[in-house]
Amino acid sequence: MSNIVLDMQINNREKEYHHTNHLVYSCCYHVVFCPKYRRKVLTTDIAIRLCELVNEKQEEYGYTVLDCEVMPDHVHLLLDVNPKIGVYHVVRKIKGYTSHVLRDEFPELKRKLPTLWTKSKFISSCGAVTLKVVKEYIENQKGV
Fold first, then answer.
1. Average pLDDT of 67-78?
2. For the whole model, what pTM was predicted?
3. Got the DSSP string for 50-108?
4. Average pLDDT estimate for 40-44
5. How far is CA 10 from CA 28, 35, 105, 135, in A?
6. 94, 57 in Cβ contact below 8 A?
7. Domains along the chain?
């Protein structure tokens, strides 16, 4: 058997790598989800509170918010998620928590929708493009 030497280097120095016991990671995901029936209920006050709530649970749920943009009928999140926890689990918890709090704080959401979020979600890893490109895409969505 020949000896194989693996030369592993971190080439993308712009990324922030997280360190835990026995794990170094950077797992970035672009996440999109919508209110039920794609209703345009995410007004300015609700959008601000939604981003606050998402930021509030970072440590507890095991993710880092890189960007949060809320449109009237959908939400864009750029998250760095601990792979031991998993992005699907994190998004499910974010949607559950934000739905509960927002519907309590903004009663009009209860009147307009049976539940705040659809069961659907879009999740894409950001490995194929740079984080800068994804952030620019999210920023450009504001004008649409």
1. 96
2. 0.79
3. HHHHHHHTHHHHTEEEEEEEEETTEEEEEEEE-TTT-HHHHHHHHHHHHHHHHHHH-HH
4. 96
5. 15, 38, 44, 22
6. yes
7. 23-141 (3.30.70.1290)
